[in-house]
Design brief:
Elements (H helix, E strand, L loop, with lengths): L1 H6 L1 H6 L3 H16 L5 H10 L9 H13 L5 H9 L13 H11 L8 H6 L11 H24 L4 H10 L8 H17 L12
Helix pairs in contact: 3-4, 6-7
Length: 208
């Protein structure tokens, strides 16, 4: 799969929408590193990481951004477990928002990977069952997260996406402000997105 991404890196990278997919991330990391966690930061963050679409409760969002401000945890499972205890919507439902937890963790530590549906699909990670207990869900997420950390380290160490990363660095404005872990995330996420749009079906991207 990495060879396919390297081979079609130009198509993948040219499909990025800079103003909505690249620039907001650079601003988020810049503002965070300058300790500017204000209304503007939160607005950009919620839009980019799709917290708005989840219609999260004010209490959930308040705690979420407090964790970011305080930098109070370096453990993504601890973050996910803490946020699960807060009613996250108007129905007072509680849920393990692991993807949002990894996005928070990545903002505090850019070498931490992001887990979401596209990354999960790319690596064929096991689905989380609705009927599972909180403990079972967290255990499964933990295994997936450790796998991603190890796999991204392997990609960097063995230069498995070297060709694609080189093209990313040449073509993406502000690439010097994006760490390799996030660049890998971008490449995989966009490859999955293009695949779902029919690029493989239409033979614009081919395996082999």
């Amino acid at each position: 799969m990495y060879r396919v991404i390297n081979r079609y890196a130009e198509i993948i990278i040219d499909s990025f929408k800079y103003e909505s997919e690249i620039e907001p991330y650079i601003k988020i990391m810049q503002f965070y590193n300058e300790n500017k966690i204000d209304y503007n930061f939160m607005a950009i963050y919620k839009q980019f990481y799709r917290l708005n679409a989840a219609r999260l409760s004010d209490s959930f969002l308040n705690e979420y951004f407090e964790i970011l401000k305080r930098k109070s945890s370096k453990d993504v499972l601890e973050i996910a477990n803490k946020l699960e205890k807060i009613a996250c919507n108007s129905k007072n439902a509680r849920k393990v928002h692991f993807s949002f937890s990894t996005k928070l963790m990545h903002t505090m530590d850019e070498n931490s990977p992001i887990y979401d549906s596209a990354i999960s699909a790319f690596y064929f990670l096991p689905s989380i069952k609705v009927e599972w207990s909180i403990e079972q869900k967290l255990q499964s997420y933990e295994k997936a997260y450790h796998f991603l950390k190890d796999e991204y380290s392997r990609i960097v160490d063995k230069n498995l996406l070297g060709e694609a990363l080189e093209i990313f660095n040449k073509k993406v404005n502000g690439s010097d402000k994006i760490c390799n872990i996030k660049k890998i995330d971008y490449l995989i996420w966009q490859f999955v997105s293009l695949s779902k749009q029919g690029k493989i079906r239409d033979k614009e991207i081919e395996y082999g």
